[in-house]
Amino acid sequence: MHAIEARGLVKQFDGFRAVDGIDLNVPEGSIYGILGPNGAGKTTTIRMLLGIIDPDAGTRTLLGSDRPLSQSKLVGYLPEERGLYQSMRAVDTIAFMGALRGLPLKDGERLGRQLMEEAGLGYAADRQIRQLSKGMAQTVQLLGTIVHEPRLIVLDEPFSGLDALNQAKLERMIRAQAERGVTVIFSTHVIAHAERLCERIAIIAKGKVSFDGLVSTARDRLRPQVHLETETLDGPWRKALPDTVRQEGSWWHFTLPDSGVEPLLTALVEGKAGIKSLSIERPGLHDAFVAIAGEDAAAEMDAPTAEELL
Amino acid sequence: MIETIRAAFVIGRRDFTAIIFSKAFFFFLLGPMFPLLIGGAAGLLGGQVAKDIDRPVIGVAMSVEDSRQLLAARATLAEQIGERRLPELKQLDQSSATIPPETLLKDQKNGLAAVLGGTLDQPVLTGTQGPIENYRGEIAMLSAFAQNAEATKLPPVETRLVESSAGNEKQQRLVTAQGAQVLLFMLTMLLAGMVLSNLVEEKANKIIEILAAAVPMDAVFLGKLFAMLAMAFVGITVWSSVGFGLAALSGPALPSLPTPAVGWPLFVLLGVVYFTMAYLILGSLFLGIGAMAATVREVQTLSMPVTMAQLINFFLAMYTVTKMGEPIELFACLFPFTSPFAMIARAAQDGALWPHLLAVVWQAVFVVIILRIGVYLFRRNVMKSGSAGRIKDSGGKKLFGLVKLPG
User: Fold this and answer.
1) Which contiguous run of DSSP H or E holds residue A4?
2) pLDDT tens-digit profile of B273-324?
3) Pairs of residues, one from chain A and one from chain B, whose beta carbons lie less than 8 Å apart
């Protein structure tokens, strides 16, 4: 069962094709990352999936319905551009966001206070949003996203603008929601977040999905890298190394041959290479991203935004 | 539908409380005080100026005897028909009889508007066009009475006061109709215009994204519209309470309006209904227009043509007050933007109730249509929404979600 299915989504803005035939499958109960550089089409895709805008072509279902807004009570959404009523109290903001999605206001206020206490912000529950720091206001908005206990949470660049402490808090919250069986989808341009949190990812670049599947599958597209240091620089053992091997002094770097580790080790030992150091490194998601989306897209991915540098 | 109304209530409740509990709302309530104060001050000032302005004086350059008789006739008649109904007369020196009237009129010291010469039999009035046109009749009357003093003894007229007369009732109800129209227009213009800037906060604060992801845009528009309507009613309640309080204090000094054709209780009820409909029709239009604006500056730029359009509607409705049953009046009743104003005027002059039921239904339909067009344009032009996304096309394509399109 998929929480979200999209087929051939297309969206153009003034002749520019921001999303160009995207297909997605988000299994229920998973933590799903949408990765891509800025301007890749992540936000537009999310907005179409949630029914904020309709696509120019293609179809999508959200929790089984092709009318996403009809499922809004089961969905929590944190948009990329955060926005709150400045004169509203924090607890009222959470209750209001819950009420928009069908939660009675009184329940929303009670749960809002509870969530704020749990987040360590109980003392600020009755303060107006304009009296809160940016980080606190973001937390309030996040709490408003989950107050009605949705089945699906969609977070658009949720780590953007948060300090390291709050990023860690958010990661814990995402994991906690997933443990409750909630499907969590988030977009990010920081691969490390996706690598730590996600079981499945979609890589979007230039409005197209380059990859949609398990993180492990993405990594498995690349062979493990071997880093070997030997006492001798030549001998029969050299035949066991592939032609693409890169030598740096007594160090040898190469992709693990298809035959695996054991034949390599045997050749090295029997060929008296004199192994000083040997490590086999499984490719990270970043390497997989480079392989899938290309160097240019990868270079844009982890570059911090001006906001994040502040 | 129920879900849309529920969501509209949530949004409306938020907007309403945000407005009512803001400091700015207090100044909003004081708003009508300023035009009243300015109007009152201008009225007092105008009255004083009118008093201070000298009335035109006609110099009498007749023989001594004719002049004496003329002035005596004026004094007698002024007692009976009123001082201000007759021109001011000033007897000139006998020497002036030899001076041409044109010269007398040019003399700044005299300050004359006209000069009356000749005799009582054949008076000659010399002056500019205005005074001659205005006073030639009065001068002829005074000359006639001056020749026959007995005739100035006018018989006393016995008066008998009745509540109403058939000939007068229609005229009086026109006053009620026009008064109601003006009141309705003033309130609508004062209050519905505020809806123009209603979505700016949401767009500026990016809250629109949260709303659009959670509820249908129709609910956002509807909630905002009804929140502003509720706020308008709070304002009207406060203002009318103050108004009735002042009326109670001033008591019989206030003029009483003629009873409308449908009777006062029903007329007041219809007034509330038509204000609501006028507010919803114009408000839904303003909301749609305002939603297209990206900034407060754009909203301000838009408000001028919108106000002008409102005035045109009002003038059309005003014009049709005296044209009951004529095509232009029927058009004003049917045209959604003039319908509430034309119908309240109709309620003052015609006792039939069924047209009001039809009109309210008709107006409500237009509120829905205008609102849906506003939502459609907002989604298309501001949010840049497309038209696909559904797996199955169960209901066929609909224009603005209302009218099913062929094919």
Assistant:
1) strand A2-13
2) 999 999 999 888 888 888 887 777 887 787 788 788 888 988 998 898 888 8
3) 96
Q: CB–CB of A79 and B210 under 8 A? A: yes
ipTM of this predicted complex?
A: 0.82
10 Å CB burial of residue B132 (0-12, 13-18, 19+) is middle
Pick the residue of A77, A100, A128 with the most B CBs within 10 A to test the interface with B by mutation. A100
Question: Six-digit token pair at A38?
Answer: 């800025």
How do residues A190-210 score in pLDDT, each as one tens digit?
888 888 999 999 999 888 998
Chain B nearest-CA distance from A260, in A, is: 47
| Fold of the domain built from segment(s) B56-152 | D-Maltodextrin-Binding Protein; domain 2 (3.40.190)
The H helix count followed by the E strand count for chain B is 15, 6
pLDDT band at A127 (very low <50, low <70, confident <90, very high): very high
CATH topology of domain A2-219: Rossmann fold (3.40.50)
Q: Which of B347, B374, B341 is nearest to B264 (CA)?
A: B347
List A279's β-bridge partners, or say none: A227
Nearest to B180 by CA among B308, B266, B254: B266
- Please state the domain extents for chain A: 2-219, 223-281
pLDDT tens digits for B142-194? 888 888 877 767 777 777 777 666 666 777 788 888 888 998 998 888 787 77
What is the domain partition of chain B in residue ranges? 56-152, 168-385
Which residue, chain included where needed, has tokens 């005299």? B110
Structure tokens at B156: 């006393």
Compute the distance between CA of residue B202 and CA of residue B207 in angstroms, rounded to an integer. 5
Judged by CB atoms closer than 8 Å, whether chains meet at A54 and B384 is answered as no
Decide if B206 and A96 are in contact by the 8 Å CB cutoff.
Answer: no
Burial letters B218-256, b for 16+ CB under 10 A, else e: bbbbbbbbbbbbbbbebbbeebeeeeeeeeeeeeeeeee
B398 touches chain A (CB under 8 A): no
Is B173:B348 a contact under the CB 8 Å cutoff?
A: yes
Contact A85 B392 (CB under 8 A): no
